[in-house]
Design a protein that fits this description.
The protein is 32% helix and 24% strand. The chain has 297 residues and is α/β, with parallel strands linked by helices. The protein has two domains: 255 residues, Alpha-Beta Complex (Spore Coat Polysaccharide Biosynthesis Protein SpsA, Chain A); 36 residues, no CATH class. The protein binds uridine 5'-triphosphate. Uridine 5'-triphosphate (UTP) binds next to α5.
Length: 297
């Protein structure tokens, strides 16, 4: 029987160097797409997927994330007093309440890599497989990517499950790339993956993006993982090491993914969402952009 995914880990302790100077004082995960911070999209996706516990791996300098994520009763009272009850209600719905929700914050004091960040969550996860969501990979769509992956995982445990999308060959050097051995619907069976290969060396064009369902054995693998690319403890290295024993598969989610850790990706996500909202039609028109134009970009 496949064990239930009860915990989602949100690694949010990184430096966000690609987005400087915006991230000098503001955590990357709080940068908004129009009016909603990236972390909020990730929380909403995890909630929709029905996870019980959310573990945020943050950094002491990024306490603003905690302030955004948790309910702020004083702010809501202030809004109520100013006659903005609907706004107060909206904030209450999106925030996590430490009393009603199962929320844990744990610190990664040094950004030693994504794998190390996930390892920091080890003592705080519930039994069974865990989900990992990278908030800077925004995936828009219904159902959410995490819901789709949890459903696929429940249909049959194939070991670690990683979200994948097909990328242009010349972009393989930006991603972990799956070594694909077969296909089964949205599942890509794989016997490993290669971190950031040159296009000529890439085993496929199936790139890993920021959603994972990981067998709990990942924590032991991470504890013994030596630093990889950039001198960081890489999550993909630990997943790939388990491919032979634990097993692994890619999952082709149905939504659209934006790399909001990059300025171009953030702009693309903003234009995409603006194009869906009639409120912004005039603004887009002012810049010579029409909805069809933006969607095709
Ligand atoms: P990224 O590699 O995209 O984030 O990690 P980064 O290192 O902050 O960004 P750049 O490359 O310098 O611009 C993906 C996610 O993993 C977290 C980040 O906060 C981000 O949400 N992360 C990364 C950690 O929590 N700890 C780390 O040591 C590294």
């Amino acid at each position: 029987m496949t064990a239930q995914v009860r915990t989602a880990i949100f690694p949010v302790a990184g430096l966000g160097t690609r987005f400087l100077p915006a991230t000098k004082a503001t955590p990357k995960e709080l940068l908004p797409v129009i009016d909603t911070p990236l972390i909020q999209y990730a929380i909403d996706e995890a909630r929709e997927a029905g996870v019980e516990r959310m573990v945020f791996v943050s950094h002491p300098s990024k306490s603003a994330i905690e302030r955004h994520v948790l309910d702020d009763a004083d702010l809501r009272a202030e809004l109520q007093a100013r006659g903005k009850a609907a706004l107060a209600e909206e904030l209450a719905e999106t925030a996590l309440c430490p009393v009603e929700d199962d929320v844990v914050f744990v610190m990664q004091d040094e950004p030693l890599g994504l794998g190390h960040a996930v390892l920091c969550a080890r003592d705080h996860v519930l039994p069974g497989p865990v989900a990992v969501i990278l908030p800077d990979d925004l995936i828009l769509g219904r159902p959410g990517a995490l819901s789709e992956m949890i459903a696929a995982h429940a249909r049959g445990d194939r070991g670690h499950l990683v979200a994948t999308m097909t990328v242009p060959r010349e972009e393989t050097r930006k991603y972990g790339i799956l070594s694909v051995t077969g296909r089964d619907g949205p599942l890509l069976l794989a016997d490993g993956m290669v971190e950031k290969p040159e296009p000529a060396d890439a085993p496929s064009a199936e790139a890993v993006v920021g959603r994972y369902i990981l067998d709990p054995a990942i924590f032991e693998a991470l504890a013994t993982q030596t630093p990889g690319a950039g001198g960081e403890i890489q999550l993909t290295d630990a997943i790939a090491r388990g491919a032979g024993t634990i097993g692994m598969a890619g999952f082709r989610f149905s939504g659209r993914r934006f790399d909001c850790g990059s300025k171009a990706g953030m702009l693309s996500a903003t234009l995409h969402l603006a194009a869906q909202d009639p409120d912004y039609a005039d603004v887009l028109a002012e810049h010579g952009l029409r909805s069809e134009h933006v969607r095709a970009a």
